[in-house]
């Protein structure tokens, strides 16, 4: 494409630059409006600056991708309600044979879950559970958190529904679900194995010690608290960071502002927990496990004062006794609910869960058969809405509509930037050295994708490079064109493991762990980079040798 006239080129570059800054640094002090508003601002500027026309802006929005995103979000929400992620979490601790076995299980479960339910969803629902298991066994949390985030990114590369950039690639390339799976699944398996091996090599001594020397004062989580863990809503929330504070002493990235719907049910759970704690205290159970007599002639004010005093003590001085009481309260509530639940309601719930799993399996089979991916996901989502037979608003409110809006703005902004001719000119200079019919060309292309994915994010990278890389490979053969798309999917996804800021899944794990009550842990930027840098390059290189079109 010929470079656009100078005025359009400059204005288009300014609009794209604003979009890029807000997409990478959503809380930039001069304009802290976030990623979603930033993408809409970039799109609006492309139209106002007359880089593209309004009709071209509407045409740039890819409705099949938005439909597939919406459908997979809704299905994930109903799977969470059907306790799918609860069962996945229980698989992590079932008959575990030590820290190394636990780390390998996290890698496997995270990879499989993310390939079917997206990497962001997997990290949202499993982070706090993994942290509780680590605290329960007095283990350092960071190897397990790194295993969760990195394996989720690697695992999501295997299917078109694993992450947003794969959705774009599958629909633009016309590669079927089955062909996509066959092409990358072997690389994903090898990548997860190598990633787990790197984690074991880096933290072998730390895991052998079986003692959290970093935070010896941190309380140990009771087993009852792990078993009664309340999973967060399985929304595909698009992270919006209100601040990124770099501490020179601790070298920690402080990330604030994870979507509020991630912890939407926390207040309700805490209310029930406080209610049950007050009931157990009135029956004479103290936080130390001893009997506490209650004067039957005491006034309600004395009882309320005693309850408030106990509650304040538990909030200000968390201890093992408090953790045990929380676990007892949760267990008591669950047991009471089960006792009150009549057989008809119980069987109705089992039948509903079975229907959710059957519909999900049917959706996956339909995708493997090559049916239209967008309408298959939408059909599965609406089938679950109908089978639920109640107002769908609470479930649909958990959909991350901000992510859908972000994609709309991004489509328009990228299309406008393409019309400036800058991406085409840069690709024409690089294309002779990035041919995928020889090893050196694949290596150069992979490095460009990897670096650009960390600088401009993976989805914009796919939108900018996808058509150009495929067209270059199509000049060689049709098989090479398919291989080029698969390489783009693999490298742009694994590139998210390079740094803490490389993918939303990393940020979700960091933020969820930092906000966990009583068991919080902050995963620093440099600690992630020490593992992420070698893992990303090694896993990417090995995976490229396994990918077959």
Please tag this protein with its features.
mainly alpha, 549 residues, globular
What value does the average pLDDT take? 79
Structural class: mainly alpha
| Poorly predicted residue ranges | 213-217, 231-334
- Distance from first to last alpha carbon: 29 Å
Alpha carbon gyration radius:
25 Å
| SSE order | HHHHHHHHHHHEEHHHHHHHHHHHHH
Helix content: over 70%
Query: Which of globular, elongated, flat, extended, rod-shaped describes the shape?
Result: globular
Number of strands: 2
Strand content: under 5%
Number of helices: 24
The largest pleated sheet is described as: 2 strands, antiparallel
Strand order of the largest sheet: 1-2
Q: Can you describe what's shown?
A:
The chain is mainly α. Helix content is about 70%, strand content about 0%. The chain has 24 helices and two strands. It has a two-stranded antiparallel ribbon. Strand 1 and strand 2 form a beta hairpin. Helix 2 packs parallel to helix 18, helix 15 runs antiparallel to helix 16 and helix 20 packs across helix 22. The longest helix has about 35 residues. It is globular and about 70 Å long. It starts with 5 loop residues before the first helix and ends with a helix.
What's the quick description here?
Helices cover 70% and strands 1% of the residues. The chain is built from 24 helices and two strands.
């Amino acid at each position: 494409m010929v470079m656009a006239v100078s005025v359009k080129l400059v204005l288009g570059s300014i609009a794209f630059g604003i979009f890029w800054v807000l997409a990478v640094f959503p809380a930039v002090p001069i304009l802290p409006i976030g990623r979603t508003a930033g993408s809409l601002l970039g799109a609006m500027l492309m139209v106002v600056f007359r880089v593209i026309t309004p009709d071209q802006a509407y045409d740039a929005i890819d409705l099949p991708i938005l439909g597939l995103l919406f459908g997979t979000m809704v299905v994930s929400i109903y799977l969470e309600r059907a306790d799918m992620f609860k069962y996945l979490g229980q698989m992590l601790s079932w008959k575990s044979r030590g820290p190394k076995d636990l780390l390998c299980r996290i890698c496997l479960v995270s990879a499989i879950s993310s390939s079917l339910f997206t990497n962001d969803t997997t990290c949202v629902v499993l982070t706090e559970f993994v942290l509780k298991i680590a605290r329960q066994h007095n283990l350092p949390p960071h190897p397990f958190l790194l295993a969760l985030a990195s394996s989720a990114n690697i695992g999501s590369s295997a299917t078109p529904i694993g992450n947003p950039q794969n959705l774009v690639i599958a629909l633009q390339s016309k590669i079927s679900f089955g062909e996509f799976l066959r092409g990358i699944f072997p690389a994903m398996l090898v990548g997860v194995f190598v990633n787990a091996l790197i984690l074991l090599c880096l933290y072998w001594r730390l895991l052998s010690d079986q003692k959290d020397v970093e935070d010896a004062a941190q309380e140990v989580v009771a087993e009852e608290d792990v078993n009664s863990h309340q999973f967060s809503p399985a929304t595909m929330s698009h992270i919006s960071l209100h601040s990124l504070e770099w501490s020179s002493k601790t070298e920690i990235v402080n990330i604030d502002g994870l979507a509020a719907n991630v912890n939407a049910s926390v207040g309700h759970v805490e209310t029930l927990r406080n209610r049950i704690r007050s009931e157990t205290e009135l029956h004479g159970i103290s936080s130390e496990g001893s009997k506490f007599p209650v004067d039957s002639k005491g006034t309600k004010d004395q009882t309320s004062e005693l309850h408030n005093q106990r509650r304040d003590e538990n909030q200000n001085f968390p201890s093992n006794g408090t953790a045990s009481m929380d676990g007892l309260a949760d267990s008591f509530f669950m047991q009471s609910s089960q006792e009150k639940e009549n057989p008809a309601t119980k069987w109705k719930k089992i039948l509903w869960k079975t229907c959710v799993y059957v519909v999900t399996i049917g959706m996956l089979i339909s995708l493997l058969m090559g049916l239209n991916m967008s309408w298959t996901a939408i059909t599965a989502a609406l089938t679950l809405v109908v089978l639920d037979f109640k107002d769908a608003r609470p479930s649909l409110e958990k959909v991350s509509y901000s992510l859908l809006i972000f994609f709309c703005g991004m489509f328009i902004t990228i299309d406008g930037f393409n019309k400036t001719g800058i991406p085409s000119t840069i690709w024409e200079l690089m294309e002779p050295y990035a041919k995928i019919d020889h090893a050196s060309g694949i290596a150069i292309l992979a490095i460009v994708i990897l670096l650009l994915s960390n600088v401009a994010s993976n989805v914009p990278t796919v939108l900018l490079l996808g058509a150009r890389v495929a067209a270059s490979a199509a000049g060689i053969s049709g098989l090479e064109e398919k291989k080029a798309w698969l390489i783009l999917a693999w490298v742009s996804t694994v590139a998210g493991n390079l740094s803490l800021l490389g993918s939303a899944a990393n940020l979700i794990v960091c933020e969820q762990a930092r906000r966990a009550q009583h068991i919080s842990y902050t995963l620093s930027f440099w600690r992630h980079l020490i593992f992420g840098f070698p893992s990303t390059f090694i896993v990417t290189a090995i995976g490229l040798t396994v990918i077959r079109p």
